[in-house]
Design a protein that fits this description.
Order of helices and strands: HHHHHHHHHEEHHHHHHH
Distance between the termini: 26 Å
Number of strands: 2
């Protein structure tokens, strides 16, 4: 997300409450807008299809199918998202802009080929007995979403945040309209609308990339050369998404909590809805995260390394490091405070919200612990972002591996303990990883000047 700080600083520099509000609102939309749009779109499609699609189980099949498409595609592309973005950033630093677009197209072709091959194998191996139309749509959706996530992270690196949100708004508006128009066809009709909307979204984003980086060549594969990309970034991209979704997969496929919905796809009635609602509460924390990390911290980060490159005095360099440390502590503390307020709001209004949605109050304990988990995830995201800024790739791999291991082990343990403990495994795993991350940051920042000079 490096670069958004320029826009946020411009808004905050006005020194007015209106400017401050606009900065936080802009940050919230950029950081959580696509996620919120996808949630709202799936909800609207489900609610507005109740009177047309019969039986209602077909709507559940659509929602579960879309959930698995989103989850599987983002995990599948996890290894290339950060690694390729870093490769592009290095080429831009070297003023080799002409390499960007051809290699992006080359990566997109590789992702399409890998996703298509994997999808075909899985569909034939696991989805036998389902309609050909359903299988073709699932394959198309998986390939398109893999390309969407790859392009989204690339556009973020290009600092085209408004374009991303606008294109997602357009894509999901078309998704809703097309799904509602095709809903008489049942699950396949709803899924067809989902695919159409995301194809339009992908087309718009790829067009934006081509216009932004004109180049004499259309396709190149320089990024695929040996040593061109960092394996640690590929590993951490994969491990992070696995760590976030591990507990959901366990609940989906556990005999006590999950049930089969369509083909090999499972869902957990007791676990999914509280998680779904809890993630809507991370918007304030994400806004604070983006504003503080990408303004105050990014500013002193740039000054620190500029001072190193310019040969400034050691006192000045140490001063910039101390300012970085202070802004990191302030940012993490502010994230905790704001997200804590969001948690209190959910605690106060949770029963009312569930009643309005027609959901039993038995879900309240799970909603509460999942809101806490979502807040901890924002804090962890802040810690990992600082580690990425400092280029501590090995540390991030260690932290994300810890998250995966802890989430799997603790979720299985709480699952064995019974319903009152559901959700605590993920929360405990995040807490352990956050504590470990804070200790890693303290160690790395304490040795920053030494490592900066001695590792050259």
């Amino acid at each position: 997300m490096a670069g958004i700080g320029f826009e946020l600083r411009k808004l905050m520099r006005k020194g007015t409450y209106a400017g401050l509000f606009r900065a936080y609102a802009y940050a919230g939309v950029v950081s959580a807008g696509p996620w919120v749009l996808s949630i709202v779109a799936i909800l609207v499609i489900g609610v507005m299809s109740l009177a047309v699609v019969s039986p209602e189980v077909l709507i559940t099949q659509f929602q579960v199918s879309v959930t698995f498409l989103l989850v599987s595609s983002i995990i599948f592309t996890g290894p290339v998202q950060l690694a390729f973005t870093r490769w592009v950033a290095d080429r831009l630093f070297e003023k080799k802009d002409a390499l960007v677009m051809p290699n992006f197209m080359g990566l997109l072709l590789c992702v399409m080929a890998a996703a298509g091959t994997t999808g075909i194998v899985l569909l034939f191996a696991l989805f036998g007995g389902l309609s050909d139309m359903y299988r073709v749509l699932m394959l198309s959706g998986f390939v398109i979403l893999c390309c969407v996530w790859t392009t989204t992270i690339f556009l973020s690196g290009m600092k085209r945040y408004r374009a991303i949100v606008s294109l997602f708004a357009l894509g999901y508006s078309i998704t809703v309209a097309a799904a509602l128009a095709l809903r008489p066809l049942g699950t396949e009709g709803l899924l067809f609308g989902f695919v159409i909307g995301h194809f339009v979204l992908l087309t718009g984003m790829v067009t934006l990339v081509i216009r932004e980086f004109p180049a004499p060549r259309l396709v190149a594969f320089d990024f695929a050369r040996r040593g061109a990309m960092f394996p640690a970034l590929a590993a951490s991209g994969l491990l992070y998404h696995l760590g976030i979704w591990a507990d959901k997969f366990i609940f989906w496929y556990s005999p006590e909590t999950g049930s089969r919905v369509i083909g090999p796809l499972h869902a957990s009635v007791i676990y999914d809805m509280p998680v779904f609602l809890a993630y809507l509460a991370i918007i304030p924390g994400m806004a604070v995260f983006l504003v503080r990390i990408e303004t105050d911290f990014a500013e002193y980060f740039e000054k620190f390394y500029e001072a190193v490159r310019a040969g400034s005095s050691i006192d000045f360099i140490e001063g910039m490091r101390e300012e970085m440390v202070f802004t990191i502590r302030q940012a993490l503390a502010e994230i905790v405070k704001i997200q804590g307020m969001a948690v209190l709001v959910v605690f106060a209004t949770g029963a009312w919200v569930l009643a309005r949605l027609g959901i039993s109050e038995l879900y309240l304990p799970l909603l509460y612990i999942n809101v806490v988990s979502a807040g901890l995830q924002v804090v962890l995201l802040g810690i990992l972002t600082v580690c990425y800024y400092l280029d501590k790739r090995a540390a991030v791999v260690g932290l994300t591996a810890l998250l995966v291991t802890a989430n799997v082990a603790l979720t299985l343990a709480t699952l064995a303990l019974g319903a009152p403990w559901y959700g605590y495994g993920f929360a405990a795993a995040l807490l352990v990883t956050v504590v470990a991350g804070v200790r890693v940051l303290e160690s790395k920042l304490g040795r920053l000047e030494y490592e900066t000079f001695m590792l050259q």
